[in-house]
Structures are given as C-alpha cells and as structure tokens.
TrEMBL record:
Name this protein carries in UniProt: G-protein coupled receptors family 1 profile domain-containing protein
Membrane topology recorded in Swiss-Prot or TrEMBL: Multi-pass membrane protein
Family annotation (InterPro entries): GPCR_Rhodpsn, GPCR_Rhodpsn_7TM, TAAR
Species the sequence originates in: Anguilla anguilla (European freshwater eel)
Gene3D superfamilies reported in the protein's UniProt record: Rhodopsin 7-helix transmembrane proteins
UniProt keyword Iron-sulfur present: no
Pfam families for the chain: 7tm_1
Example of a GO MF term: G protein-coupled receptor activity
Transmembrane stretches, start-end: 12-34, 46-65, 77-95, 189-211, 245-273
Compartments, record wording: Cell membrane
Keywords, sorted A to Z: Cell membrane, G-protein coupled receptor, Membrane, Receptor, Transducer, Transmembrane, Transmembrane helix
Coiled coil ranges: none
Annotated Gene Ontology cellular component terms: plasma membrane
Length: 305
C-alpha cells in the first residue's frame, strides 16, 4: 500500500459512513412499516420491498465501493470478494429499480389487465430475474474472467522466473484493475447500466404521457359538468402534472446525468486527444477537401443547364 492510502481510507470513511448510515436507517424504517401493515402485503409492495432490501445492502456496501480504486495487500480470494460483492449489490439494486418501474408502468398502461402479466402471475420468477443475473454476471471474475493471472505471471517473471505463483501481488496489490478487465467494465456499462437507465427514462416518459392524456380527459369532463369552476380545476390539474414532471426531471438530472456524463467523458478523452493531433485527422481533412472541390466544380455546370 502507498503511504497515502491510510489517509485516503479515513477520508472515504468520513464521507461515506454518514450517508451509509442514513440509507440503512431509512430503508429499515420503511421495511418495518411495510412488514407491520398487512394491507400492504401485495405484489407491487413486494417488488418495492425487494428494492428496499437491495438499497439497504447497497448502503452497507457503500463505504467499500470507493476503496476499490485503492491498492491493498490481499490474496486472491479476499480481493475477489471485496470487489465482486459490492458490484453484485449495485447491479441487483439497478435491476430491482427497473422491475419496480416496469411493474408500475404495466399498472398504469393496462390498469384492467395488469394482474394477468407474468410479473404478477409468476412473482417468484420475477424476483429471481432481479437477483440471479446480477449475481451471475458479478461472479464472472471468480470463474476466470479477470486480470489476476497476467499480473501474477508478470510478478513471477520479475521476481526471477522461479515459476511459483505469489499469494499477493507485491507492490501493485489488489485493485479493481486486476479483478475487472476492460471488456468486463465496458459490457457492464454499455450492456447493463445504460440500457437500464434508458428503459427507466422511457417508461417514466410513457407514464407521464399517459398522465397528461388523462389530465386532458378530466379537464374536458369538468368543462361539460362544471362550467363555472372548469378553469380553476383545469389549472390545478395542470399544475399538479407540471410538478410531477419537474420532480421526475430533477431526480433524473440529479441521479443519472452525472453518472452518464462521467462514463462518457472517460470515453471521449481518447477521441479528443486524437482530434487534437493533425497527423491523425489529415486523411479525413483531405477527403473533405476533395469532396468540396468536386462539389464546387459541379456548380457552374448546373447553372449553365
């Protein structure tokens, strides 16, 4: 470990422990409220309860997530555990969040037939789909999809080529770079996280569109029944809908936009560096110059015709 690691770990604990404690206590309070009220024991609330459990577990793992970037002296099993377990909890939370939005979307889009969909008829299967795939994907590094072998071979070669596999990784230590290959990270970001975020945005937008259409129908009904109070009631409904849109937009901007920006800024940096080098962009510049010259040679002929 580097000399700065203890100071970084103390800083991480000071920042994450209060937030983690607040998340755990808030989820426990809501979980106890749902468990103690028998009227809330139904399928929609069971999905929400699963989301609360995933959020609770994410709160427990929150202090360990920033420490993935630190280098620690751990053996193979411990290094896998401290990286795979938080990643599994985060993915399960994301899958549960998508399932809750999907179940609510079905209830609003098909209010008369939502109980016939598979998420209600096969609740154990639906619950399994939000916990088993995250566990399976997060466990892939434990089945060999990791960089530990290459790092161990490099360390063995540097140590004299005696062929013995080291229990640790010497100066480099345990970090997420040894557990998660780049392809694993790209697949998780672009194959799981971003599609989940876009699906949530799509379902939320569809629900808001349905709500807007229902608001218009209610306004028409009020105009035909209560002509004197129609303007006031319509203004109240429109204001309530506007508040809902603003709340949803604020949640998306505050929670998901920073993450999306961070992910794509890291991906755009190589492109920016490449565009800044004229040697890399000369072929594209010459091609554009050639196309522009051909287009200018065509124009006089077109005018003559």
């Amino acid at each position: 470990m580097t000399p700065d690691d203890p100071a970084q770990e103390r800083l991480i604990l000071c920042i994450t422990l209060p937030l983690s404690t607040a998340i755990i206590l808030a989820n426990l309070l809501i979980i106890l409220g749902i468990a103690s009220n028998r009227q809330l024991h139904n399928t929609p609330n069971y999905f929400f309860l699963s989301l609360l459990v995933a959020d609770l577990c994410t709160g427990v793992a929150l202090p360990f997530i920033p420490r993935m970037g630190l280098s620690r002296d751990l053996d193979f099993s411990a290094c896998l555990l401290v990286h795979i377990f938080p990643n599994f909890l985060f993915l399960s939370y994301l899958f549960n969040l998508v399932m809750v939005h999907y179940e609510r979307y079905l209830c609003i889009a098909s209010p008369l037939h939502h109980s016939q969909f598979w998420v209600h008829r096969c609740f154990p299967l639906a619950l399994l789909t939000v916990w088993a795939p995250p566990l399976l994907y997060a466990s892939l590094p434990a089945f060999g999809w990791n960089n530990w072998g290459s790092a161990s071979n490099a360390t063995s070669g540097a140590g004299g080529g005696n062929g013995s596999a080291p229990s640790g990784l010497g100066e480099e230590g345990c970090s997420y770079r040894l557990v998660f290959p780049n392809t694993f990270i790209y697949l998780e970001v672009y194959g799981l996280l971003l599609p989940a975020i876009l699906s949530i945005v799509g379902m939320t937008g569809r629900v808001l569109w349905i709500a807007r259409r229902q608001v218009r129908d209610l306004c028409k009904l009020r105009r035909s029944v209560e002509r004197a109070q129609a303007v006031t009631a319509e203004h109240r409904l429109n204001l309530r809908y506007a508040k809902c849109v603003a709340a949803v937009s604020l949640v998306f901007v505050a929670c998901w936009v920073p993450y999306i920006v961070y992910v794509h800024v890291m991906a755009i940096i190589p492109v920016v560096l490449g565009l800044a080098n004229r040697q890399y962009t000369d072929p594209a510049r010459r091609l554009l110059h050639t196309l522009r010259a051909r287009w200018r040679r065509r124009e006089p002929g077109d005018i003559a015709l």
